[in-house]
């Protein structure tokens, strides 16, 4: 599944409100499809060095964190999950500029 392609340029239409299967042309609304997405996580905990796997729904939430350069609190979009051994939260943030 992916966004529909522009016939002239061949690139995906970024602002499209639907997802299309390239082989069978089945279409699904954007909100309905994004609710079904999951993320598979293979991690090593920075707190206890435990290696493990986790599976969460791919929903980004606003999370407060301290910016290293300015020392101020900022809110970022992140997928948050718990370590299976120590129970502390680990955040996966978007790449920041």
Strand content: 35-45%
Low-confidence residue ranges: none
Number of domains: 2
Mean pLDDT: 88
Total count of strands: 7
Rounded to an integer in angstroms, the radius of gyration calculated over CA atoms is 18 Å
Query: What is the general shape?
Result: elongated
Give the structural class. mainly beta
Sheet with the most strands: spatial strand order: 5-6-7
Order of helices and strands: EEHEEEEE
Share of residues in helices? under 10%
Tally of helical segments: 1
Kindly report how far apart the N and C termini lie.
28 Å
Task: Give a quick account of the main beta sheet: strands, pairing sense, barrel closure.
Answer: 3 strands, antiparallel
Please outline the helices and strands.
Layout (H helix, E strand, L loop, with lengths): L17 E3 L6 E3 H5 L3 E7 L6 E7 L3 E6 L6 E10 L6 E5 L4
Antiparallel strand pairs: 1-2, 3-4, 5-6, 6-7
Commentary on this structure:
The protein is mainly beta and 97 residues long. It has two domains: 1-36, no CATH class; 38-93, no CATH class. The chain has one helix and seven strands, in the order E-E-H-E-E-E-E-E. The protein has one helix at 30-34, and strands at 18-20, 27-29, 38-44, 51-57, 61-66, 73-82, 89-93. The strands form three sheets. The chain has a three-stranded antiparallel sheet with strand order 5-6-7, with no helix packed on it. The chain is elongated. The two termini are 28 Å apart. The model has no long low-confidence stretch (mean pLDDT 88).
